[in-house]
Design goal:
Blueprint lengths: L2 H12 L13 E7 L6 H12 L6 E5 L20 H13 L3 E8 L4 E2 L2 E2 L1 H5 L35 H15 L4 E5 L19 H17 L4 E5 L6 H4 L23 E5 L7 H7 L4 E4 L4 H16 L3 H4 L2 E7 L4 H8 L13 H17 L1
Parallel strand pairs: 1-2, 1-10, 2-3, 3-6, 6-7, 7-8, 8-9, 9-10
Antiparallel strand pairs: 4-5
C-alpha cells in the first residue's frame, strides 16, 4: 500500500473514537477573508469584536494584495486601498479581542483573474510566465490555453526585488508574526513560453520559490503560510487538478522547509490530507468554504487526529480556518441577514462559517 492509502485507513479506523481534548480545542480558529474597504473599516472592526472574537475566531488571514497604499511601490496601489492609519486602527481593534492578523499577498500564482491582470503584471509585464497567452475579452473555462490565472516567472532576475518590497511593507504595517503567500492553483509553471523556466522540474521550481520566500521572511522571524494544493498529488489521491496538483509540483513537499504552515483547503469533502502534511512534518490548518457538513466533518477530523496522535504529531494539527472568496462587506451583510439560507445546492459560505464555529464550541463543551 502507498503512504496516502495508509492515512485513509488510519482515519477510517480512528474516525469514530471520541476525542479527549482540553478546553482549547485548536490553536488556530480562523477566517480567511478579503481586507475590508476603507469605507467599511469601522463596521468590520466592530464585527470582529462583537461576532468573530465571541465565536472563538483568533486568527484572520486578510487578503490584502494590492489594496494597500504602499510607500515602497506606490505604482502598485490598487483601488480602495487602505492607508497606514487605517491598517493600524484595524490591527489595534483586533488585538483588543485577541485576534491575530496574518496578511496575504498572492505570490507566484493568481497574478490575473479572468480577463484582468493584477497590478504586478499590468505594470511589470516582463514578469509574466506566459507572455504569449493573452487575457481574453470574455473569459471562459475550460479554454485552449489552459488559462485560469497567470503566474509570475520565479526565475526572472528582478521579480523578487519588487514583490519583497510589498511583503516587507505589509508585514511591518500589520505588525505581523506570519505572512500568507497564497501560492495555490499555480497552473502555469515551467511553461514552454518562458525562456527561463521551460524544461525545468516544476516541483523544484515551486519548492525553490517557497524556500526563497520563507528565507526572506525568516530574516525578520516571520513565519510563512501557504495553501497546500500544489503539494498533493492529484492523480495519486484522486483529488484532481484544483485541490491538488496535476502539473508535477507535488514532490515539492519533500523539498521545502518544515516550518511552513499549510492551509489545506477542501471544499466538497473532508479529505484527510492534514494527516499527510503532519506526517511530513508540517503544521497544518484544515479549510472549508461553502458546505456546512464539510466544515463540521473537518472540525471532527482535526479533533480526532489530535486526540489520537502522540504529542509531537498532535501539535501539528493547528486547527481550522474558514475561507470566504468574496468581499468582507458581502460576508457581513449575509451574516447579519436573518433570512439568509442555503442555496438550491445546499451551499452557503456564511452558514458554513457558522457551522464551523458551532462545531468547535461543541467540542469545547465535551
Amino acid at each position: 500500500m502507498k503512504p496516502f492509502q495508509y492515512l485513509l485507513l488510519a482515519y477510517l479506523f480512528f474516525g469514530n473514537i471520541p476525542p479527549t481534548l482540553s478546553q482549547d480545542v485548536f490553536a488556530v480558529q480562523g477566517l480567511c477573508i478579503a481586507a475590508p474597504q476603507p469605507g467599511s473599516l469601522d463596521e468590520f472592526i466592530d464585527f470582529a469584536k462583537k461576532e468573530l472574537a465571541p465565536n472563538g475566531i483568533n486568527t484572520l488571514v486578510l487578503r490584502v494584495d494590492y489594496r494597500y497604499e504602499y510607500d515602497s511601490r506606490p505604482e502598485l496601489r490598487g483601488e480602495n486601498a487602505l492607508s497606514k492609519e487605517q491598517v493600524k486602527k484595524l490591527v489595534s481593534g483586533c488585538k483588543e479581542v485577541g485576534i491575530e492578523i496574518i496578511p496575504q499577498v498572492n505570490l507566484l500564482g493568481h497574478q490575473s483573474w479572468h480577463s484582468k491582470a493584477t497590478k504586478l503584471l499590468e505594470l511589470y509585464p516582463e514578469f509574466d510566465e506566459t507572455p504569449n497567452i493573452k487575457l481574453p475579452e470574455n473569459y471562459e473555462w475550460p479554454n485552449e490555453d489552459g488559462l485560469y490565472c497567470k503566474s509570475y516567472c520565479p526565475l526572472h532576475p528582478d521579480v523578487h526585488e519588487v514583490v519583497f518590497d510589498l511583503v516587507d511593507e505589509i508585514v511591518e504595517v500589520f505588525e505581523a508574526k506570519a505572512f500568507h503567500a497564497g501560492m495555490d492553483e499555480v497552473f502555469y509553471l515551467a511553461h514552454e513560453d518562458c525562456p527561463r523556466c521551460h524544461g525545468r522540474d516544476p516541483a523544484k521550481l515551486f519548492a525553490d520559490e517557497v524556500r526563497k520566500i520563507r528565507n526572506h521572511l525568516a530574516q525578520n522571524k516571520i513565519r510563512l503560510w501557504i495553501w497546500g494544493d500544489r503539494l498533493i498529488d492529484g492523480a495519486e489521491t484522486g483529488i484532481g487538478m484544483w485541490e491538488a496538483s496535476m502539473n508535477n509540483t507535488a514532490r515539492a513537499i519533500d523539498m521545502i522547509p518544515k516550518d511552513v504552515v499549510i492551509s489545506d483547503w477542501h471544499y466538497e469533502r473532508a479529505d484527510p490530507t492534514p494527516a499527510y502534511f503532519a506526517t511530513k512534518g508540517f503544521d497544518v490548518v484544515a479549510c472549508p468554504w461553502r458546505i456546512p457538513e464539510v466544515a463540521k466533518k473537518q472540525v471532527e477530523m482535526m479533533a480526532d487526529f489530535k486526540a489520537n496522535s502522540i504529542k509531537k504529531m498532535a501539535d501539528r494539527y493547528l486547527g481550522v480556518m474558514h475561507t470566504y472568496w468574496s468581499s468582507a462587506e458581502r460576508f457581513m451583510e449575509a451574516y447579519k441577514d436573518p433570512s439568509h439560507t442555503l442555496d438550491e445546492k445546499g451551499r452557503s459560505p456564511v452558514l458554513t462559517f457558522r457551522a464551523m464555529t458551532a462545531a468547535i464550541q461543541e467540542k469545547e463543551k465535551n
